[in-house]
Design a protein that fits this description.
heterodimer; A: about 240 residues; mainly alpha; 12 helices; about 80% helix; B: about 230 residues; MetI-like fold; elongated
Chain lengths: ~240, ~230
């Protein structure tokens, strides 16, 4: 853990010394220097990208588990939906920079702080979509399944969840790109992810790194979004044939 | 917990500073929103009225949602330099998609029978737009504005790293203000976002035509019934 925390600091260091002795493009702070990106890919940009992906995956995974449990409970007991939406909506509204800082006295400048905040932003989106998916199953379908002799559990796993999948994956899509975006802000509590090169470049207005790290982050979000669209299509073949 | 007590003490001791930064924050938000509204709403309403460009109008919000705010500000700093303008441009880029898509979906989704009836009564296309489609679409259009406002207030906080003054100035400057100051400013930002959210939720309800409000209540009554086991 300590090694993982110490490493990013070491990685973001070389930017300053190389500012002077780099190519003329870097010395003049040109708009975009390919050479710098090539030289710093393996020790700055790539590790930051991988950390960013790890931060995102952990947050979306934990968020999905919590939201799924809440959605199942609210699906059974309708009255639970409103309080859950109010609480998660409250969390969702708090600006990220503020929420990260508000957690610092409780969990410190740790990855845990970053993950708690990131998870809390996924809950509203995931919960709403999961519940909408589950309760969007037509009553006739549910009746037919019960009429065939399915138990409540079979009804959930064999009928309701498969039919809710498109809505659930749609929620995952939004939650994932939201976390990818907000994980850059986590740099104010842990020096990890693409926020680290962005932040260090902002300190010096180093254009190449600003554009490279920013574009990587945008690309990551767009690729993740696209991948989840493909997942959504693969998991719900009927939505394709249903289209006129 | 002591940190939070100190944070509230900081707020109490620094009301003028926090107030002036809040005004900066709102000025940044207001400027960005004004430009974004001027771009997004006419375009979305117009496309929705024509029922054209659904692919672009809907997908722009998917792409827009995927754009990471800090990354956008960072690219903006490289292209436009440090300061108010750069951050405002980034905020406009982030605020346009949700409003454009909502405006499109709202007007596009207005009951076609109502539009036909209005045409049958002899209304001109402009009258149909202004007197039928817009009032019916207003709640959903407003929902988009509300989403955008809360998003812009949150993101304006990040403007501090790029030289635009906001409440974020204190949050990113722990060296000067220490933890209580950072926490105090964070509390103010959170409160600002929540107040904006509640204010716009109230406004949204206020602009909902009475007919739609009644219908929604019927819908809400029917809604849970389908989820109960029969």
């Amino acid at each position: 853990m300590t090694a993982a925390l110490a490493a990013p600091f070491a990685q973001s260091d070389p930017v300053i010394p190389e500012f002077g002795r780099g190519s003329s493009c870097v010395r003049d702070n040109g708009l975009f220097c390919w050479g710098w990106v090539k030289d710093n890919w393996s020790d700055t940009l790539q590790p930051a990208l991988l950390e960013h992906i790890a931060l995102t995956l952990i947050a979306v995974l934990i968020g999905s588990l919590i939201a799924f449990a809440l959605a199942l409970a609210a699906h059974k007991r309708g009255w639970m939906a409103t309080p859950v939406v109010v609480v998660t909506g409250f969390l969702y509204t708090i600006p990220s920079l503020a929420l990260f800082q508000l957690l610092v006295p409780i969990t410190g400048l740790t990855r845990t702080t970053a993950e708690i905040a990131l998870v809390s932003y996924t809950l509203l989106i995931l919960f709403r979509n999961m519940l909408a998916g589950l309760s969007g199953v037509p009553a006739e379908v549910r009746d037919a399944a019960l009429g065939m002799g399915m138990t409540e559990r079979q009804l959930l796993w064999k009928v309701e969840l498969p039919l809710a999948l498109p809505a659930i994956v749609a929620g995952l899509r939004i939650a994932t790109v939201t976390v990818i975006s907000l994980a850059t802000v986590a740099v104010f509590v842990v020096n990890e992810g693409l926020g680290a090169p962005i932040y260090s470049a902002l300190q010096q207005t180093f254009k190449t790194e600003l554009i490279a790290a920013g574009a990587l982050c945008v690309a990551l979000a767009l690729v993740a979004d696209g991948l989840l669209v493909l997942v959504q299509r693969a998991l719900s073949p009927w939505t394709r044939t249903a289209r006129p | 917990m002591n940190d939070f007590v100190d944070a509230f003490r900081f707020i109490g001791d620094h009301v003028p500073l926090l107030w002036s930064l809040t005004l900066d924050h709102l000025a940044l938000t207001g400027a960005a929103m004004a430009i974004a509204v001027a771009i997004a709403l006419p375009l979305g309403v117009w496309l929705g009225h024509l029922h054209r460009g659904s692919f672009a109008a809907i997908n722009i919000s998917n792409v827009g949602r995927a754009l990471p705010s800090l990354a956008l500000i960072s690219i903006g700093v490289a292209l436009l330099g440090i300061g108010f303008v750069n951050v405002m441009v980034a905020l406009v880029v982030l605020a346009v998609p949700p409003m454009l898509t909502n405006a499109y979906v709202a007007v596009d989704g207005v009951d076609r029978d109502a539009v036909e009836a209005a045409k049958g009564m002899g209304m001109t296309p402009l009258e149909v737009l202004l007197r039928v489609e817009l009032p019916l679409a207003l709640p959903l259009i407003f929902a988009g504005v509300r989403t955008a406002v809360v998003y812009v207030i949150a993101t304006a906080t990040l403007g501090s790293v790029a030289g635009a003054s906001s409440l974020g100035d204190i949050i990113v400057d722990q060296a000067t203000y220490r933890l209580p100051g950072v926490l105090g400013a964070a509390i103010c930002v959170a409160a600002l976002a929540l107040v904006a959210e509640l204010l716009f939720a109230g406004l949204q309800r206020a602009v909902t035509p009475r007919g739609l409000r009644a219908r929604r209540r019927v819908g809400a009554a029917v809604g849970p019934a389908t989820t109960t086991e029969t």
